[in-house]
């Protein structure tokens, strides 16, 4: 019987793939860390964050500390985030959702049930890089019905033309906000997407923050591994050893 082998942190861990015939699955995911020379200068990029809940704040804290220009927004208006923006630093501004959506990279930190409303209320994200940290969980902790698609494939359909990269969804907000540089190495952060250039840029952000980024492939492949609650990589706090 063949099994899925996941190569992480200089170790090999056999795991089963939910819903897959184990005799047909044989895969080894290799850690692909972007070289430092490929990481863009933070001053060359603006990051817009739509949603200022736990994951939005955690991401804002990290990218602000890394020197990126950050626009953070929520549905209640920029004035409600002025104090948070001030606390995060001079490179963070509170803006409208519409303005945050004009950034080169958009971090979509909104509850699953509000995604469609956001898609209808903002300018087109055609050509923009959209980092998708969402999980398909509805109020009452009910799982949304996705059919045969991954959650990020659904997100890509809601925002046509956007270059969607699934990332930051497998770690709880307090670990996203925590220092990813551990004594033994770096906290692992998985990502996937269909646009390689977009993935390279997101990988640059991930690695500049201090995480060990691992490219899982396309949304229909890696997205399935990342997806909460049934993905085999969901909610694992892993460290890549130095």
From TrEMBL:
Tree of life domain: Bacteria
Residue ranges constituting the Pyrroline-5-carboxylate reductase catalytic N-terminal domain according to the UniProt record: 46-136
A Pfam family annotated for this UniProt entry: F420_oxidored
InterPro entries in the cross-refs: NAD(P)-bd_dom_sf, P5C_Rdtase_cat_N, STEAP_metalloreductase
Signal peptide: none
The keyword NADP appears for this protein: no
GO MF, one example: oxidoreductase activity
Protein name from the UniProt record: NAD(P)-binding domain-containing protein
Alphabetic keyword roster: Oxidoreductase
Lineage of source species: Bacteria, Pseudomonadati, Bacteroidota, Cytophagia, Cytophagales
Presence of the UniProt keyword Oxidoreductase in the record: yes
